[in-house]
Amino acid sequence: MLTRQEIQEKLQAVIDKLIHLGGADYEMDKKTDTKSQYLGLVARDFGFEEWDWPQGIGLYGLYKVEGLYGDDRYQDFFKEWYGKNFSQGLPSRNVNTTAPFLTLSFLAGEWGDKRYQEECRKRAEWVMELLPKTKENGFQHVTSAIGDRQAVRLNDGELWIDTLVMTVLFLNQMGQSECRSDYREEALHQFLLHIKYLYHKESGLFFHGWSFLRNDNFGGVFWCRGNSWFTFGVLEYIEQCGASMQAGIRKYLVEVFLAQIKALLDWQDDSGLWHTVLNESDSYLEVSGSAAIAAGIYKGIHMGILPEEYRKFADRAVEAICENIAEDGTVLNVSAGTAIGMDSDYYKNVMIKPMAYGQSLVIMALSEALRQYTEYGKEKVL
């Protein structure tokens, strides 16, 4: 396994690259043809200045790193980033543009900033009351339009596993911090509903999405990054809830997580990574999903959910991930933004590009890896 110093150096390089990515070119998105957009060529996802889900994941990663080191090293960056975005005006409200509110929901309370606290409350109310819902009151995966930051793509009647991290974690955290049982209950409902429609009992893996209009899981593909949203997200959710979660609910979520982990380990490549279509070895090895899976395994061990023997699988993944970090900190072999495909060929043809969320998910994996050198939650790493 890599030494602590080697992991720290890789982590710092990835962070430095992330925070200096710059902004998005919406004019380029307006000129990009539809096929290229469908295969992931979306400028918004490359930079770190825009307010959307790739940036939201990155902010949360930086917040987690602060917690790891027990200091405030990114506080000035947070204040500048949020201040700039609010001053220039936020994009359309949707599932993905809710992601940056997760980190803000923590920071606003720590800062005692009433304005940001109110903005978080407004977004939580919007999620509860105005976010389009599917049948059975699911959060419809409404996303940002490409090339128009004030427009949305509705994805009528569709549940996507991404929603659990992009929106549900924020809503639950607001329920915890604001003592709002309705927020907490709705977050639980969303986790259970998404498991109901996306979990594949025979394999233990998750489908990317479900359509209430089609009444199916689209192409029925086991997408790596999609699965990783649950691996990573469900443990964040359990940790947020803490002792307030009923024992039966916790046991159920943990059992689903354990079944998924067992299935994921069966499909881990000899390299340590996972294929972008998990059960098809002719699909390319993908770093961002592999990073979130590794982060989930480490976190499961730290939380006492997974036995220590599982660490070797996460260690193998991190070694492979570090081999995919360029000297300048760029994370390589990351699949671009991915819609829901009707067959595995779509996922195999999504372009490979350095992406903001690739940096972000590797930050999650490396920061969780560093915890193996210290008692979880009790002392700082050096």
Topology:
Elements lengths: L3 H16 L6 H6 L2 H5 L14 H17 L5 H14 L11 H12 L2 H16 L13 E2 L7 E2 L4 E3 L2 H15 L3 H18 L10 E3 L12 H18 L5 H20 L7 E2 L9 E2 H16 L8 H13 L20 H6 L6 H15 L12
Tell me what the structure shows.
- α13 packs across α15.
- With 382 residues, the protein is mainly alpha-helical.
- The longest helix has 20 residues, at 247-266.
- The strands form three sheets. It has a two-stranded antiparallel sheet.
- Mean pLDDT is 93; it is low at 375-382.
- β1 and β2 form a beta hairpin.
- It is built from 15 helices and six strands.
- It starts with a helix and ends in a 12-residue tail after the last helix.
- The chain has helices at 4-19, 26-31, 34-38, 53-69, 75-88, 100-111, 114-129, 163-177, 181-198, 224-241, 247-266, 287-302, 311-323, 344-349, 356-370; strands at 143-144, 152-153, 158-160, 209-211, 274-275, 285-286.
